[in-house]
Amino acid sequence: METQIDRFWVLALVSKCKAFSSRDPIFLLLSLFFAWLAIALCCWVYPGGPAWGKYWLRRGICSKAKMIPGPKGFPVIGSMNLMVNLAHHKLSAAAKTFKAKRLMAFSMGETRVIITCNPDVAKDILNSSVFADRPVKESAYQLMFNRAIGFAPYGVYWRTLRRIAATHLFCPKQISSTESQRFDIASQMVSVIACQGGDSFRVRDILKKASLNNMMCSVFGRKYDIGTSNNEIEELRGLVDEGYDLLGKLNWSDHLPWLANLDLQKIRFRCSNLVPKVNRFVNRIIREHREDQSGQRRNDFVDVLLSLLGPDKLSDHDMVAVLWAAYIPSLSFLGN
């Protein structure tokens, strides 16, 4: 909305000029460009950069509200450079530079951002429903994460997901039921490492396989040995790696809406290719659980979600999103 108002203001300004009726397209374009540039520079001079400049201009220059310190960054794009490569180090250094002891403001294109290194302030933010919603990245929305607890908007649906997670998925009973599974995977890890002998190996690769197998069992009820290869687990590994890469990539379109239709980073294209594969994979497992006539429950997340009744019952589309979102973090802490 802010961007549209700015554009209308520029058009209104140019329409007052005689050049508008002179049918000189070059002069008109130059007028539009310089008017836009003047607005961008006016917004950029405020602490926090261009996005915060728009906010303060809209509230009025005479506003008595105290401005939050922070870097201006660059005109238009703000401080998007802070979010590339070890962002937490750069943000910490910027907070020290600007003496932002409680809060620091900066701009990522047209997105206003606030960070804090103060534990008391962080506690207040995390416990406040005002901050419950988070901006949904394009990749998160395309990958169905807007229907999972991490990105779903605060409201009845989000509270339902939270109740399901607390009561069924991550309750003490569910965690204790997978204790033997974790012991078994830990034993497999020891055996795999012992078999390496004096050969060099990467511990991260073994941890990654163990994490993948643990989540495969907890979420989908599938059990595999760490030392063996399987087409299904390799397929899922590829889906998870691609999904995690898309979620972690800094998407310019999220913060510069006028670039969205160009899809310069091919994120929308990659998401559109990944989602059908995820749907096929997860829906196949859900269908297998429904068709299982053995009468034995595996106590995995799929069985738990299928057993829900009444207001807690989820549609297949929502189940795919919840299961997919439950699986992605399994490898996130290990990276690639």
UniProtKB/TrEMBL annotation:
SUPFAM superfamilies named in the record: Cytochrome P450
Alphabetical list of Pfam families matching this protein: p450 (PF00067)
Key words of the record: Heme, Iron, Membrane, Metal-binding, Monooxygenase, Oxidoreductase, Transmembrane, Transmembrane helix
GO MF terms held by the record: heme binding; iron ion binding; monooxygenase activity; oxidoreductase activity, acting on paired donors, with incorporation or reduction of molecular oxygen
Regions crossing the membrane: 26-47
Cofactor(s) needed by this chain: heme
Source taxon at top rank: Eukaryota
Family: Belongs to the cytochrome P450 family.
Name of this chain's protein: Cytochrome P450
Annotated source species: Salix brachista
Lineage: Eukaryota, Viridiplantae, Streptophyta, Embryophyta, Tracheophyta
